[in-house]
Amino acid sequence: MKLYRFDEVGHDLSLLPLAARRALDRAGCRLSRASWSTLSFDARRALILEGASDEIDAARVWALATGASPAPEALPPEVDPPADTVPPEVAAAFGDARPIGLAAWAGLSALDRYALAKVAQKGRPERLDGAWREIIGETSISTHLGPSGGARMVDVSAKRETPRVAVAESAVSMSAAAFERLRGSTAAKGDVLGVARLAGIMAAKRTDELIPLCHSLSLSRVSVELSLDEEGARVRIVAEVETRDRTGVEMEALVAASVAALTVYDMLKAYDRGMEIGPTRLLSKAGGRSGDWARQG
Predict the structure, then answer these.
(1) pLDDT tens digits for range 64-83
(2) Concatenated DSSP letters for the chain?
(3) Residue 245: its pLDDT value, please?
(4) Are residues 171 and 61 in the same domain?
(5) How many distinct structural domains can be found in the chain?
(6) What's the burial of 101, exposed, middle or buried (CB within 10 Å: 0-12/13-18/19+)?
(7) CATH number of residue 285's parent domain
Protein backbone atom coordinates (compact mmCIF):
# COMPACT_ATOMS: atom_id res chain seq x y z
CA MET A 1 0.00 0.00 0.00
CA LYS A 2 1.63 3.23 -1.20
CA LEU A 3 1.52 6.06 1.33
CA TYR A 4 3.91 9.02 1.14
CA ARG A 5 5.41 10.38 4.32
CA PHE A 6 5.02 13.98 3.12
CA ASP A 7 1.30 13.35 2.51
CA GLU A 8 0.87 12.80 6.26
CA VAL A 9 -1.78 10.12 5.85
CA GLY A 10 -1.82 7.65 8.72
CA HIS A 11 -2.34 3.93 8.39
CA ASP A 12 -5.92 4.36 9.58
CA LEU A 13 -6.51 6.00 6.16
CA SER A 14 -8.73 8.67 7.66
CA LEU A 15 -7.44 11.19 5.10
CA LEU A 16 -7.59 10.83 1.32
CA PRO A 17 -4.07 9.89 0.12
CA LEU A 18 -2.53 10.78 -3.22
CA ALA A 19 -2.67 7.20 -4.51
CA ALA A 20 -6.45 7.11 -4.05
CA ARG A 21 -6.75 10.58 -5.58
CA ARG A 22 -4.98 9.36 -8.70
CA ALA A 23 -7.34 6.39 -9.03
CA LEU A 24 -10.36 8.69 -8.68
CA ASP A 25 -9.01 11.33 -11.07
CA ARG A 26 -8.19 8.77 -13.76
CA ALA A 27 -11.67 7.27 -13.44
CA GLY A 28 -13.39 10.66 -13.54
CA CYS A 29 -14.78 10.13 -10.06
CA ARG A 30 -14.82 13.00 -7.55
CA LEU A 31 -15.00 12.04 -3.89
CA SER A 32 -14.98 14.57 -1.05
CA ARG A 33 -13.02 14.01 2.13
CA ALA A 34 -16.30 13.57 3.99
CA SER A 35 -17.40 10.90 1.50
CA TRP A 36 -14.02 9.18 1.77
CA SER A 37 -14.44 8.77 5.51
CA THR A 38 -17.71 6.86 5.00
CA LEU A 39 -16.08 4.14 2.90
CA SER A 40 -15.05 0.90 4.55
CA PHE A 41 -11.37 0.45 5.36
CA ASP A 42 -11.14 -2.33 2.74
CA ALA A 43 -12.62 -0.07 0.05
CA ARG A 44 -10.21 2.75 0.92
CA ARG A 45 -7.27 0.35 0.84
CA ALA A 46 -8.41 -1.07 -2.52
CA LEU A 47 -8.60 2.43 -4.02
CA ILE A 48 -5.05 3.17 -2.82
CA LEU A 49 -3.77 -0.05 -4.38
CA GLU A 50 -5.59 0.77 -7.62
CA GLY A 51 -4.01 4.23 -7.71
CA ALA A 52 -0.53 2.76 -7.25
CA SER A 53 -0.94 0.55 -10.34
CA ASP A 54 0.41 1.56 -13.75
CA GLU A 55 -3.04 1.18 -15.29
CA ILE A 56 -6.29 2.22 -13.58
CA ASP A 57 -9.44 0.11 -13.85
CA ALA A 58 -12.09 2.86 -13.97
CA ALA A 59 -15.01 0.47 -13.54
CA ARG A 60 -13.46 -0.97 -10.40
CA VAL A 61 -12.78 2.51 -9.00
CA TRP A 62 -16.42 3.49 -9.47
CA ALA A 63 -17.62 0.22 -7.95
CA LEU A 64 -15.50 0.90 -4.85
CA ALA A 65 -16.50 4.57 -4.58
CA THR A 66 -20.26 4.16 -4.97
CA GLY A 67 -20.56 3.01 -1.36
CA ALA A 68 -19.65 6.52 -0.16
CA SER A 69 -22.07 9.10 1.21
CA PRO A 70 -22.50 11.68 -0.24
CA ALA A 71 -22.27 9.80 -3.54
CA PRO A 72 -19.30 10.47 -5.85
CA GLU A 73 -19.60 12.99 -8.65
CA ALA A 74 -18.73 12.24 -12.28
CA LEU A 75 -16.12 14.50 -13.86
CA PRO A 76 -14.00 14.29 -17.05
CA PRO A 77 -11.20 11.77 -16.39
CA GLU A 78 -7.73 13.20 -15.92
CA VAL A 79 -4.68 11.84 -17.74
CA ASP A 80 -1.37 11.14 -16.04
CA PRO A 81 1.57 13.51 -16.54
CA PRO A 82 3.70 12.39 -19.52
CA ALA A 83 6.66 10.12 -18.80
CA ASP A 84 8.88 11.45 -21.60
CA THR A 85 9.09 15.08 -20.50
CA VAL A 86 8.98 17.00 -17.23
CA PRO A 87 5.92 19.30 -17.40
CA PRO A 88 7.11 22.95 -17.36
CA GLU A 89 4.79 23.81 -14.48
CA VAL A 90 6.29 20.99 -12.40
CA ALA A 91 9.87 22.04 -13.16
CA ALA A 92 9.01 25.66 -12.36
CA ALA A 93 7.31 24.81 -9.06
CA PHE A 94 10.23 22.78 -7.76
CA GLY A 95 12.79 25.22 -9.15
CA ASP A 96 16.57 25.07 -9.40
CA ALA A 97 16.95 24.18 -5.73
CA ARG A 98 14.99 20.96 -6.27
CA PRO A 99 15.88 19.90 -9.82
CA ILE A 100 14.04 17.08 -11.58
CA GLY A 101 16.13 15.61 -14.40
CA LEU A 102 14.47 13.89 -17.33
CA ALA A 103 16.16 10.56 -16.56
CA ALA A 104 14.91 10.63 -12.97
CA TRP A 105 11.42 11.70 -14.08
CA ALA A 106 11.16 8.97 -16.72
CA GLY A 107 12.26 6.35 -14.21
CA LEU A 108 9.48 7.19 -11.75
CA SER A 109 6.25 5.28 -11.41
CA ALA A 110 3.06 6.82 -12.80
CA LEU A 111 1.94 7.49 -9.23
CA ASP A 112 5.17 9.29 -8.34
CA ARG A 113 4.81 11.59 -11.37
CA TYR A 114 1.18 12.24 -10.47
CA ALA A 115 2.11 13.05 -6.87
CA LEU A 116 4.79 15.54 -7.93
CA ALA A 117 2.38 17.22 -10.36
CA LYS A 118 -0.31 17.57 -7.66
CA VAL A 119 2.14 18.99 -5.15
CA ALA A 120 3.39 21.43 -7.80
CA GLN A 121 -0.16 22.68 -8.37
CA LYS A 122 -0.51 23.73 -4.73
CA GLY A 123 2.98 25.22 -4.52
CA ARG A 124 3.30 24.94 -0.73
CA PRO A 125 7.06 25.12 0.05
CA GLU A 126 7.03 22.51 2.82
CA ARG A 127 5.13 20.03 0.62
CA LEU A 128 7.40 20.71 -2.35
CA ASP A 129 10.47 20.06 -0.26
CA GLY A 130 9.06 16.90 1.32
CA ALA A 131 7.87 15.47 -1.99
CA TRP A 132 11.19 16.16 -3.71
CA ARG A 133 13.21 14.54 -0.93
CA GLU A 134 11.03 11.46 -0.76
CA ILE A 135 10.47 10.87 -4.48
CA ILE A 136 13.29 12.54 -6.40
CA GLY A 137 15.97 12.52 -3.73
CA GLU A 138 16.09 8.72 -3.94
CA THR A 139 16.27 8.59 -7.73
CA SER A 140 18.18 11.67 -8.87
CA ILE A 141 21.50 9.80 -8.79
CA SER A 142 20.30 6.33 -9.69
CA THR A 143 17.28 4.09 -9.21
CA HIS A 144 19.57 2.00 -6.96
CA LEU A 145 21.11 4.80 -4.87
CA GLY A 146 19.61 6.85 -2.10
CA PRO A 147 20.37 10.57 -1.73
CA SER A 148 23.22 9.82 0.70
CA GLY A 149 24.74 7.26 -1.67
CA GLY A 150 23.46 4.14 0.13
CA ALA A 151 22.33 1.24 -2.04
CA ARG A 152 18.64 0.37 -2.12
CA MET A 153 16.39 -2.15 -3.82
CA VAL A 154 13.88 -0.64 -6.25
CA ASP A 155 10.27 -0.93 -5.02
CA VAL A 156 8.27 -2.91 -7.61
CA SER A 157 5.25 -3.63 -5.42
CA ALA A 158 2.98 -1.36 -7.47
CA LYS A 159 3.79 -3.10 -10.74
CA ARG A 160 1.50 -5.77 -12.18
CA GLU A 161 2.71 -9.32 -12.68
CA THR A 162 3.20 -9.89 -16.41
CA PRO A 163 5.02 -12.47 -18.56
CA ARG A 164 8.75 -11.69 -18.90
CA VAL A 165 11.37 -13.38 -21.09
CA ALA A 166 15.08 -12.70 -21.56
CA VAL A 167 17.76 -14.35 -23.69
CA ALA A 168 21.51 -13.94 -23.12
CA GLU A 169 24.64 -15.48 -24.57
CA SER A 170 28.25 -16.12 -23.74
CA ALA A 171 31.09 -18.12 -25.29
CA VAL A 172 34.33 -19.86 -24.33
CA SER A 173 37.20 -19.87 -26.83
CA MET A 174 39.99 -22.38 -26.29
CA SER A 175 42.99 -24.14 -27.78
CA ALA A 176 42.61 -26.98 -30.25
CA ALA A 177 43.79 -29.46 -27.60
CA ALA A 178 41.17 -28.37 -25.08
CA PHE A 179 38.47 -28.34 -27.75
CA GLU A 180 39.38 -31.89 -28.77
CA ARG A 181 38.91 -33.02 -25.17
CA LEU A 182 35.53 -31.36 -25.14
CA ARG A 183 34.39 -32.73 -28.47
CA GLY A 184 35.60 -36.22 -27.68
CA SER A 185 34.12 -36.22 -24.15
CA THR A 186 37.53 -37.14 -22.71
CA ALA A 187 37.92 -34.35 -20.15
CA ALA A 188 39.05 -35.78 -16.81
CA LYS A 189 36.27 -33.97 -14.94
CA GLY A 190 33.54 -35.62 -17.00
CA ASP A 191 30.58 -34.32 -19.03
CA VAL A 192 31.55 -30.69 -19.59
CA LEU A 193 28.45 -29.62 -21.50
CA GLY A 194 26.02 -31.42 -19.19
CA VAL A 195 27.54 -30.02 -16.02
CA ALA A 196 27.76 -26.50 -17.49
CA ARG A 197 24.09 -26.64 -18.51
CA LEU A 198 23.06 -27.68 -15.01
CA ALA A 199 25.28 -25.01 -13.44
CA GLY A 200 23.66 -22.31 -15.59
CA ILE A 201 20.16 -23.41 -14.62
CA MET A 202 21.04 -23.49 -10.91
CA ALA A 203 22.72 -20.08 -11.12
CA ALA A 204 19.67 -18.46 -12.72
CA LYS A 205 17.55 -19.57 -9.75
CA ARG A 206 20.02 -17.98 -7.30
CA THR A 207 20.62 -14.67 -9.07
CA ASP A 208 19.19 -12.64 -6.18
CA GLU A 209 21.80 -14.20 -3.89
CA LEU A 210 24.65 -13.24 -6.24
CA ILE A 211 23.61 -9.74 -7.38
CA PRO A 212 22.82 -7.70 -4.24
CA LEU A 213 19.95 -5.53 -5.53
CA CYS A 214 18.13 -8.10 -7.66
CA HIS A 215 14.63 -9.19 -6.68
CA SER A 216 13.80 -12.80 -5.91
CA LEU A 217 11.70 -14.08 -8.82
CA SER A 218 9.64 -17.20 -9.37
CA LEU A 219 11.09 -18.59 -12.59
CA SER A 220 8.81 -20.70 -14.77
CA ARG A 221 11.47 -21.87 -17.25
CA VAL A 222 15.26 -21.81 -17.60
CA SER A 223 16.92 -23.14 -20.72
CA VAL A 224 20.70 -23.28 -21.20
CA GLU A 225 21.92 -24.58 -24.55
CA LEU A 226 25.58 -25.13 -25.46
CA SER A 227 26.77 -25.66 -29.03
CA LEU A 228 30.23 -26.38 -30.47
CA ASP A 229 31.86 -24.14 -33.05
CA GLU A 230 34.55 -26.41 -34.49
CA GLU A 231 35.98 -23.81 -36.84
CA GLY A 232 36.47 -21.30 -34.02
CA ALA A 233 37.31 -23.88 -31.32
CA ARG A 234 34.71 -22.37 -29.04
CA VAL A 235 31.53 -23.18 -27.16
CA ARG A 236 28.54 -20.87 -27.60
CA ILE A 237 26.10 -20.68 -24.70
CA VAL A 238 22.53 -19.35 -24.98
CA ALA A 239 20.39 -18.98 -21.87
CA GLU A 240 16.66 -18.23 -21.97
CA VAL A 241 14.67 -17.46 -18.83
CA GLU A 242 10.92 -16.92 -18.36
CA THR A 243 8.78 -15.74 -15.46
CA ARG A 244 5.49 -14.06 -14.67
CA ASP A 245 6.45 -11.36 -12.22
CA ARG A 246 6.80 -7.62 -11.53
CA THR A 247 10.31 -7.16 -12.92
CA GLY A 248 12.40 -8.56 -15.75
CA VAL A 249 14.71 -11.58 -15.94
CA GLU A 250 17.62 -10.06 -17.86
CA MET A 251 20.00 -10.61 -14.96
CA GLU A 252 18.88 -14.21 -14.52
CA ALA A 253 19.63 -14.92 -18.18
CA LEU A 254 23.02 -13.19 -18.01
CA VAL A 255 23.97 -15.02 -14.80
CA ALA A 256 22.96 -18.36 -16.32
CA ALA A 257 25.12 -17.78 -19.40
CA SER A 258 28.03 -16.48 -17.33
CA VAL A 259 28.10 -19.35 -14.83
CA ALA A 260 27.75 -21.93 -17.61
CA ALA A 261 30.79 -20.34 -19.30
CA LEU A 262 32.77 -20.35 -16.05
CA THR A 263 31.92 -24.01 -15.56
CA VAL A 264 33.25 -24.86 -19.01
CA TYR A 265 36.45 -23.04 -18.11
CA ASP A 266 36.76 -24.87 -14.79
CA MET A 267 36.33 -28.30 -16.35
CA LEU A 268 38.82 -27.67 -19.16
CA LYS A 269 41.41 -25.41 -17.50
CA ALA A 270 43.83 -28.32 -17.06
CA TYR A 271 44.25 -28.34 -20.85
CA ASP A 272 44.21 -24.59 -21.52
CA ARG A 273 44.48 -21.92 -18.83
CA GLY A 274 44.40 -19.22 -21.49
CA MET A 275 40.77 -19.79 -22.49
CA GLU A 276 38.77 -16.62 -23.10
CA ILE A 277 35.17 -16.02 -22.05
CA GLY A 278 32.83 -13.67 -23.89
CA PRO A 279 31.29 -11.63 -25.10
CA THR A 280 28.58 -12.14 -22.49
CA ARG A 281 25.59 -10.04 -23.47
CA LEU A 282 21.82 -9.75 -23.57
CA LEU A 283 20.27 -10.79 -26.87
CA SER A 284 16.64 -9.90 -26.24
CA LYS A 285 13.98 -9.24 -23.63
CA ALA A 286 10.20 -9.15 -23.77
CA GLY A 287 7.51 -7.90 -21.42
CA GLY A 288 7.25 -5.18 -18.83
CA ARG A 289 6.63 -1.45 -19.07
CA SER A 290 9.69 -0.84 -21.27
CA GLY A 291 8.41 -3.29 -23.88
CA ASP A 292 10.40 -5.60 -26.13
CA TRP A 293 14.05 -5.19 -27.07
CA ALA A 294 16.39 -7.16 -29.32
CA ARG A 295 20.06 -6.74 -30.16
CA GLN A 296 20.63 -5.67 -33.75
CA GLY A 297 23.37 -7.32 -35.76
Answers:
(1) 999 899 999 999 999 999 99
(2) ----TTTT--TT--S--HHHHHHHHHHTEE--HHHHHHS-HHHHHHHHHHHHSSS--HHHHHHHHTTSSSPPEE-PPPPPPPSSS--HHHHHHHTTTS---HHHHHTS-HHHHHHHHHHHHH--HHHHHHHIIIIITTTSSBTTB-TTS-B-----TTSPPEEEEEEEEEEEE--HHHHHHHHTT--TT--HHHHHHHHHHHHHHTHHHHSTTPPP--EEEEEEEEEEETTTTEEEEEEEEEEEESS--HHHHHHHHHHHHHHHHHHHTTT-TT-EE---EEEEEE-STT--EE---
(3) 82
(4) no
(5) 2
(6) middle
(7) 3.30.70.640
Question: Does the annotation mark 266 as catalytic?
Answer: yes
Last residue of a domain, one of 54, 74, 94: 74
Per the structure, the complete domain to which residue 204 belongs is given by 162-294
Do the domain assignments include residue 186? yes
- Cβ 98 vs Cβ 66: under 8 Å: no
Nearest to 17 by CA among 38, 45, 54: 45
Q: Are residues 289 and 172 in the same domain?
A: yes
Is 28 within a domain? Answer: yes
Catalytic one of 112, 208, 266, 292? 266
Cβ neighbors of 233 (< 8 A, separation 6 or more) are 173, 174, 175, 176, 178, 179
Look up the pTM and report it: 0.53
Whether residue 288 is contained in a domain is answered as: yes
Name residues of the chain where pLDDT drops below 50: 138-150
Among the candidates 10, 42, 74, a domain finishes at 74
Residue 217 lies in a domain: yes
Whether 181 and 282 share a structural domain:
yes
What are the pLDDT digits (tens) for 125-177? Answer: 889 999 998 888 744 444 444 444 445 556 656 567 789 999 999 999 999 99
Q: What is the residue type of 103?
A: A
Residue 229: the pLDDT is 94
